[in-house]
User: Fold these one by one.
Assistant:
Number 1:
Amino acid sequence: MALVLATTTPGEAELFASLQGEGASLGRPSVFVRLSRCNLACRWCDTAYTWRFSGDNRPHRDDIAFERTANQITADEGDIATRILAFGVPRLVVTGGEPLLQAPALARMIAAVRAGNEAMHIEIETNGSVAPTPALDALIDQYNVSPKLAHSGNPADLALIPERLAAWAADPRAYFKFVIATPDDLTQVRELVATYGIVPERLFVMPEGTDSATLRERSRWLAQAAIDAGWRVTDRLHIHLYGDTRGT
Ligand SMILES: C[S@@+](CC[C@H](N)C(=O)[O-])C[C@H]1O[C@@H](n2cnc3c(N)ncnc32)[C@H](O)[C@@H]1O
Ligand SMILES: Nc1nc2[nH]cc(C(=O)O)c2c(=O)[nH]1
Ligand code: SF4
Ligand SMILES: [Mg+2]
């Protein structure tokens, strides 16, 4: 087994140092590694190249054109760990695609990172619909959980798994990060908060958008909604700094 990663350019794994642009660790220097493949298909996914492959059958998404090129690279877990450690940066953010789809290989990769740097802080970005394996879970400091609301275009029975949402809500390492495009989307957030008892300290709302103007416009009404509800707002710092660019 090996890890299947996304690529920046063909043959080049998406592995880079940047600032964490979103959520509880916003602004912290981090190494990012982006895994390929996803179990969902969000309408506005900013990394559709990790899953929108030719021949990929997603009955609930008949409105998207699938790409012909795979944008994937397979790599040895130990080699990826060595490359991560070489940055000398004390935080690792594992993202995708949906990283928890590759939990066994990911656990081996992270174990090798830990062996090289016991103090490394390790975060996983996840859509929250997949359970980590116990071996992986034991190695993780923080989960950034972004459950997908109705406006993502995913059916709720695929995206919102009750026992998973309950488990994340009860895990002090898990920060929720809801992507919001219109004020109507907030109604579903309120419902999930009530159903699962999500605490406001670990709940972010984040504007949907891949350009600064859109993020700014949506942040204005999002800020007032967060003030009213006691939630936190997160921007997308990397978009302001680098635009919607692979490997940033
Ligand atoms: C590309 S996803 C990868 C991790 C995982 N699949 C997930 O959805 O959380 C990384 C983060 O970007 C967010 N995201 C993706 N497209 C976005 C967009 N157009 N606007 C705002 N956030 C977006 C996701 O909700 C998630 O928090
Ligand atoms: N700088 C930066 N911060 C991020 N935080 C979460 C990201 C992601 O795509 O998961 C991301 C990303 O792609 N870039
Ligand atoms: S769950 Fe994440 S990677 Fe998958 S389609 Fe949605 S935003 Fe993209
Ligand atoms: Mg991103």
Number 2:
Amino acid sequence: MTIKSLGKPAKYSKLQANIAVHFPFSIGHRICEEKKIKKKNPLALFPTHHQLAAPRRRRRGASFSPVRRRRVGPRNPPPPTTVLRERPPVNSTAAPAQSEMKQVSCSVVNKCLAYNPCLSRNYYQRSHTVKLQRSQAGQIILPRKLRKSTLWQTNFTQRQIATHCSSDLSTSCREELPSYLTVNVLKDQSCARQGIFRKVIVILNPNSGFRSSREVFYQKVQPTLELSGFMMQVVETAYAGHAHALASTVDLSTCPDGIICVGGDGIVNEVLNGLLGRDDLEEAIQLPIGIIPAGSENSLVWTVLGIRDPVSAATTLAKGGITPIDVFSVKRTQAGITHFGLTASYYGFVADVLQLSEKFRLHFGPFRYVIAGVLKFLSLPQYRFEVNYLPLSPRRNHKLLLVTEKCNDHLAADSSAEDNWVTRKGEFLGIFVCNHFCKPAQGLLSPVIAPKAQHNDGSLDLILVHGSGRLRLFCFFIAYQFCWHLLLPYVEYVKVKHVKVRPIGKTHNGCGVDGELILGEGQTEWQCSLLPAQGRLLGRHRSASE
Ligand SMILES: Nc1ncnc2c1ncn2[C@@H]1O[C@H](COP(=O)(O)OP(=O)(O)OP(=O)(O)O)[C@@H](O)[C@H]1O
């Protein structure tokens, strides 16, 4: 069985099956094999650059086909094009195969451009190792050469494109790729090009998290924001409380499009409190707050906008949009001081850990919470509180409030109007009053503390962890990791409008608000209330914007 006797390659298809069955190493088998390989990896059957450049040497003693044996000429075989000239009438196979392979190769190039790390340069280099055995290859001369000679020319160029594209993409690290693509996309739709500018103030906390907020902002965020038309005045905080001072005194006409915070939840909380403490509250409350996460937790932006990396945050800001969010207030009743928050306020063990963790901030950064938590767990005190809460009535009207007076005055009037208060008194390991479901950005399992809470549902979610002791606390934290903590018999979960927490005796009397500790003095009572949809965040949740 030789190839010459088969005539035109177009007729092979009918014979292939039979031949493949009876002669496993014959042409039928060979073509079937090639098709299989081509299906898996279209480029596998084509030669490398190296193979193309260097003519193949004959090995001594290697078996040759009859055609080759008869050929008289130079030692090195002529290039495939010469063979084509000798036997031209095979366009029927070459032409369709060529167009088919063009399509395949184009799709491969597209795949490369879409950046799949598996399809990087190494992938294509590896693909050349899929070769047929020499003994099999020797049996077919003409069809293989024809296919090769015609396809090599077209695919060599396409392979080059694919290799270059993939090498361009594969050399950049994975983390930087999104910003590379983002910048390209934004270049096309640039607001700056269209003359749309947004004037904002950027407040950057250089002490946040791993103290990398400067690098994060100037390298990853600023270019994207500038491209999308943000005119930014950047201010770095010099001391704790600086962001609060800036937000409470800034001329609002210099930043009509918002204040962008680069840091953690603490810096956002300072800005919020600065704005809500202003005399021109009506205007200030309208000012949206943007967040570039660079802190230890950044639970707010992760939970509400679904973002936990600075590049995505910059893209979200660039896209625009506003997300309304409820604000809650925590009032220290005796002193008459009110603090505002967006995430949660907590009392008991977690507030105690927060206070201790500040000692480790300098040396351990975001890991300070773990160290303080373990230490406090080992020397666990008792926490006794009296908790009064006003449950959310099902007929509650969620209409937005008009800000015509100071938030504090409104809260006092609203809470005293109803008298269905529920009282709980005793030992509590923890008390959490959550404004949203509080998903920590760090952590393996990403648990949530209040699964039913929404950032704009007009209610607060109260979680009471009754009792005391390390075993209970340990079980609670394990269950919390899997989001089973609400199933525990000593955990109470209720949606509320107002909560009053009063520490009893020598219990730790501090209160944590959005990761910031507010210390009480003597017999303190904390009163927690809601201001529905009073806050505005720059950007929208990914799913909402899509
Ligand atoms: N220049 C500064 N020097 C010292 N402390 C600062 C400075 N600027 C801000 N702070 C304080 O740092 C505290 C923490 O800031 P931030 O919340 O941004 O980071 P974080 O605590 O690491 O993150 P998270 O709150 O998400 O855990 C804030 O209470 C703020 O008052």
